[in-house]
Amino acid sequence: MSEPIVQVSPAWAVLAPLALLLFALAGAGLNGALVARSVGRPGRSGASAPLAQVARLLRQRRQVTVAADVLLWRIGAGGLVVVAILKILVIPLGPWTLADLDVGVVWFNTMDVMIWALFWLIGWGANSAHSLVGGYRFLSLAVSYELPLMFALITPAVAARSLRVGDVVAAQHDLWFVIWMPVAFVIFCGSVIAFSSWGPFATAVGRDIAGGFLTDVSGVDRLLILTGRYAVLTAGAAFAVPLFLGGGGGALLPDWLWSIVKTALVLAAFVAIRHRVPTIRPDRFAEVAWIIVLPAALLQVLVVAIIVVGS
Amino acid sequence: MGVTSVLARWASTSVHVLIVEVPGWDESRMLLEAELDRRGWRVALSPADADLLAVCGMPGEELRAAFDLLWNQLPGPRTRVSVTTSVALSALLDAAVAHLVDDSRQRKDARARSRPAAAEDQRPDAGEHDGMDHGGMDHGGMDHGGVDHGGMDMPMPGGIPLAGGGDDRDGLEMDVLNVPLGPVLPHWPAGLVVDCVLQGDVIVSAKARVLEAASAPKDEPTTAVTDVAGRRIIRLCDDASNLLALAGWQTAAQNARRLRDDALRGADIADHAAALDRLRRRVERSVLLRWSLKGISLKGISLNEISLKGISLDEIPLKEIGLAAGARANTGNATPPDQATVDIRHRLIGWLREAAVLAGPSSGTQPPAASDSDRARQAQLALAALPELLRGTDLGTARLLIAGLGLDTAALAQTHEQTHE
Known about the structure:
The complex is a heterodimer. Chain A is mostly helical.
């Protein structure tokens, strides 16, 4: 078990987006099933809803609003999937990784900051009030989650004494990080849900603002954004595995399979949470994020640092 | 053409429907929503996400103009249906699907729309925008309804005037936008238009009015439910569902909506009361919801006047509610002070509690039916209180407040009709 992480040929990079999209589709399918159940239809009928949605959006003409900032709008729409793909470059599948960067953890963080820009551009581009408010809401949420997320990402790196994802996985050979840094794990998960504008943090696409930054998007643009949201959610779930859940480590199954199983479980939890809890207003969340979550994240880093130095 | 027809067939399994409701036709809307759930179709939040425009009821002139504008904003393939109480919903929707998957027809529609491209681009919008006093915003479609005609004539990008500036609540200069909310928004009272002046997402000032229906539904019974209590349960569940959806708790909202649909079908009553009570407890227990709705309240509204919708019922012991609500509506001299503050969350819980009591086996007594003039007067008061209520709130809070008001726009549209005719 737990072989050292090796970098594979870049040719495999063709498969990575495919795997990501399959996961995203599975996540969307699970969401569809849960939605169907909530309206009293069999879950199975909802599981295929994402395919129907893809067909629908491919058939739909795209509507452009008056005086829209089309270039920026499209960059925002198309960028999400790209960012998600860039994110998974540093995530190992069992023993294999596409790019074992020595700053892998920071790479992931950089990509997630790009999401700020993308969601904002989508909100801005449409030149419409609700869309713009959606963009604003995302930014105010981002100001709340980003710092805690950075410290949550740094915590495993401190424990592993390296920013290389491979080293972080190796450092969990004996004990998964989730066991002794649960606060960082929870903050990380919350942040992934937030940067995907999902579940309790989906106010930027809220019903009270008629869909927020999605209000005016149609056709293939909408398809790209919706796919992108699932893709970044998936990428976040996948990154939790090497960071906190021991990477491919586990009994019986081969490493690569463990990576997939763990990712699927985390993703399923992320999707399911949307159907459990109400959304949190960004202004309310800001208070909690800065007064409770951020100090908690710092404390977690401190505790981990002391343990690492002491041992 | 194999691929396109396969796509069309797939797409038609989940049609997204933009529902627009004319005041007084809420039962048509509810029946339609229930039918959509049954088919696994989805309610669109905006015209850009819709394939089908479903007009519930007979719109008056201004509403019709607003709906036509929305129709222009459906990307296509698109189709529209008119839902009135007497039509067979299922056949209507089947016909709509047939229209949607008919590629040649949709292409013709698309060509007809894009031909006068140059003119179309400036199209109703340019004219409309000049007049609409739009401050450069919003093609969301949501806001098109009836609109102020400010008549600005300067040359403008895309026919839209640039936003002016103004001091915001912290004394900083910020863009001022004139954005009408309504008459079509998700979970929005039918026909209501609130003309807002916005800075960022904060409402600086607002004016509210209600657009009229061309006619009220005929008095034929459209559902299995004809008694006052039954209708009230349906209305309460609908209001609660809307408020929950706006608060961002989609599962609970869906739960309330299913209970509403059960009531609409005339489901087993005892069972229903228990389910309503379970939902009420779930809402009451949610820490996240409590935290999210903290401090959002209807201030300065004369409670006695609008107590029909169940304000502050939670102060009353359960078994007395049916009676107390009635008594309060009748006499108008209940205990809470005139200018009290009602927490939105308490109001929501109060609605669910009242619905549970009305559905319960012990209730027996029917609440007194409010007369049309009473309803109109109460709605008028609520409408008049809106501008003050919304001043200084952000859009999200404003939406919750409006939903919490439980505005009965049908009553208002009726009085208009009377005064106008």
